[in-house]
Amino acid sequence: MSLYHEAASILTGPVDVGGSLKSRVYNNKTLKSSPAHLYALVSETIKWSGVLREVIERSQLLSVEKKVRDAGFRSGSMSGADPLSGIDAATSHPLKLAITRHKARLNAEFIKARLRRGFPSIDALKTSINLHGGTQTEALTNGSAGENGNGEVPTRPLLHPRWVRINALRTTLETQLETTFADYSHVDSLALLEASSSRKVLHIDRHVPDLLALPPGADLANTAAYLQGDIIFQDKASCFPAYLLDPSLEDGEFIDACAAPGNKTTHLASLLSKRQRANGVLTKNPSIWAFERDKSRALILKRMVETAGANHMVTVKPEQDSLRVDPESEAWRGVGALLLDPSCSGSGMVGRDEMPRLVLPSRGTEKQAKTSNKKKRRREPAQEPKNTKSSIVQSPQDEEESLSGNLSQRLSSLSAFQLKLLLHAFRFKSARKVVYSTCSIHAEENEHVVVRALNSDIAKRRRWRVLRREEQVPGLRGWGIRGALGACEGLEGGHGGATEVVADACLKCSKGGKEGTMGFFVVGFVRDSVVDGDSDLTPESGDTADWNEEEDEWEGFSDGGLVAPSAAESDQGRCSSGKTSTGREKRRKK
Ligand SMILES: C[S@@+](CC[C@H](N)C(=O)[O-])C[C@H]1O[C@@H](n2cnc3c(N)ncnc32)[C@H](O)[C@@H]1O
């Protein structure tokens, strides 16, 4: 049984210490069990924990079997046809006996749990759980059933879909729908996508052009389309910045000031190539300068640009610190628009160093407990240490990290760095558009940076203002989640606009929300004309905290995939597959 005890200790460990589930198992040298077996057991347990909870709670097993309760029915496998078939212990083991005594009741509850979810067979339930990791079936238990049942669908999508961006540099949406996704059925909403038990189902996004949502388990990493760069795994939210920039061939040159691994750079190039195609005439190729200060990340960026077929537009500047580029220099006079997606806390990332949540059964309601054993229940002896977030979800509670001293310090350092980059972007003499984004959910890195930027000397003198909601590209104008009014207070007037206008100009994405995105923030800045005679500006003056380079900031994945960890891994495979970049010639030297 040590396999089960070890699984239990992994599953009940604190959620905020020890890294991902995989690293907790494979890096723990004190475990006796085979890491592969243990990992399989804990991941299966997590996947099935919602069903297990229901079966155990409804059978009231824990109210009558003290042994099971004290040992903790912490892990089990549901890979077989009944809830008990996976328990690998001697038949005479007291724990196994305590469970098998209730076999009939447990099996009956298991059947009911399956039917409640609308699955006609165990295989159908298994397929859905394997596809959606168990969470989707949870959505179906409150009275509604999935498409296998009475056709109803859950009211809210719960999972992070696999977002796939069609790369217009190499292909078109129509071509991909006729080839890579020819045998996929189309659904009208994420809710339907999540309710589907089919792997071959997709939803065409209604906000960002050329973006598809697929089920989270969709495996496209080996498709020709992915390998040749026709499709790119990119979270929907991460597609907002380039789209919001609304790049046109008249904008002049572009800079992506924080470019690696290259999702937004290649998206920008893709949007420009569509513009070129729409123009119908052979236009001069637009220029995108992709700055990346980190040497190894710049290599990944180069590969991504190459794979996406954007070499003819993008010039990667490896080991280039954006802040060391002189925006006043004549060399950058042609730059009209910038993307700025700086390193941030990454608090909006889905799956970052995440420990999956285990849903545990309770011993039943007070009433159930009283009727079953008529004894007053004692509290579980094993208590979590204070101030430690457990990976077990006992009851829904807000697990938002509190702004402790450390976090607050870190955020203030990060936001100082982000502001510095933003004000630097404002200094490019011909620039008329800047899009700023973070994958952070903290106002300090988002609205507060916007307010401080608008209050800056350079913003006022060069007349930078926010790109108002009504000016935004059609797909994003309708996006409902906007900046927090309270977080936008403190505007000093001038050209910044009213607090409401600024808050409404900010687009936010919720992590784990019904839109299926990661947590994200994006805002556009524009100016209506280029103002000259302002080279005497010292834009960074007056900005407070110093950026601490040692901070653990989020710098995006080291690959092209801002999706689930598995996709990130597969992208990494592509990026580090030994394929060398072709040594693309620089179009011109700066
Ligand atoms: C959040 S990631 C960017 C993700 C990227 N925009 C994408 O969509 O794939 C931030 C990147 O900016 C780089 N970076 C941070 N500060 C920089 C600076 N001052 N100059 C250039 N690159 C910088 C980091 O090394 C990191 O690769």
UniProtKB/TrEMBL annotation:
Start and end residues of each SAM-dependent MTase RsmB/NOP-type domain: 152-528
Pfam families tied to this protein: Methyltr_RsmB-F (PF01189), NSUN5_fdxn-like (PF21148), NSUN5_N (PF21153)
Keywords: Methyltransferase, RNA-binding, S-adenosyl-L-methionine, Transferase
An annotated GO cellular component: nucleolus
Region (Disordered): 346-404, 533-590
InterPro entries according to UniProt: MeTrfase_RsmB-F_NOP2_cat, MeTrfase_RsmB-F_NOP2_dom, NSUN5_7_fdxn-like, NSUN5_RCM1_N, RCMT, SAM-dependent_MTases_sf
Bias kind Acidic residues: ranges: 546-556
BP GO terms, sorted: rRNA base methylation
GO molecular function: RNA binding; RNA methyltransferase activity
Entry-linked SUPFAM superfamilies: S-adenosyl-L-methionine-dependent methyltransferases
Family the UniProt entry places it in: Belongs to the class I-like SAM-binding methyltransferase superfamily. RsmB/NOP family.
Protein name stated in the entry: SAM-dependent MTase RsmB/NOP-type domain-containing protein
Protein source organism: Glutinoglossum americanum
